[in-house]
Amino acid sequence: MPTRERPADRGRRATRRAIGTAVDELHRARMSVGLSQRDLSDATGIPRTKIGRIERGEVVEPRAGDLGAIAGALGLSLRLNLYPDGEPVHDRVQLRLLAAFRTRLHASLAWRTEVTLPIEGDRRAWDAVVIAPDGWTAIEAISVIGVVDGTLRRVNLKQRDDPRIARVVLLVADTVRNRHALRLAATVLRGDYPLDTRATMAALAVGRPPPLNGVVILRVPREPP
Question: Are 185 and 177 in contact (CB under 8 A)?
């Protein structure tokens, strides 16, 4: 069975590929304006030998500052942008939160974690999925609530794109900060996630998916020493 690539390793590989593309573009730009490596060295203060090594791909991870200086000397601007590409890794609180939630489910319900969407090339995934005979319920574990609108938009898009999912549960760690954030966002949440903890867990505890999307607030067990 092939080993699943870690998100951090995938990120490193994608970054090296992007840097390689940028280096190729800088080399072509230098040639097109007729500058030598010595000219570029004089303009940037970067040793000519280092510029040559960068262009030949011998510097695996050239400094962003060096690439930016070369780009500036060639009348270009180096920009770094971030794009969604899969899910962030779980922190320890999220893992304990998911484990605590699972113990409250009926024994007949199947449980899977890190379930990717059924779209080729799409790295988005659900933190967990509860599987009942009459439907799948996706679980999104949240240790610290950030921007509620952004979270809802991200989760709602996943639900839209995954035809297997009948319901979604936002599983939130029970902290003072999170409860305050939920109170402030109550109006926004009520439209898409009308069920509270009691109603959601009442269904799952007897082996049924909740009738609607819901929010579950759960105390996170202490980490063992």
Answer: no
Q: How far apart are the C-alpha atoms of 127 and 139, rounded to whole Å? A: 6
CATH ID of 7-73, from 1.10.3470, 1.20.1250, 1.10.260, 3.40.309: 1.10.260
Whether the predicted pLDDT of 65 surpasses 80: yes
Give yes or no for a contact between 137 and 128, defined as CB atoms under 8 angstroms apart: no
Q: How many CB atoms lie within 10 A of CB 212?
A: 15
State the burial class of residue 50 (Cβ atoms within 10 Å of its Cβ: 0-12, 13-18, 19+). middle
The arithmetic mean of pLDDT across residues 200-219, rounded, is 96
Any alpha helices (H) in 45-147, and if so which ranges?
48-55, 64-73, 92-102
d(CA 139, CA 224): 24
Which residue in this structure is represented by tokens 């489910």?
A: 105
Over 80: is that where the pLDDT of 8 sits? no
Structural domain boundaries in the chain: 7-73, 92-218
State both tokens at 42.
């004089």
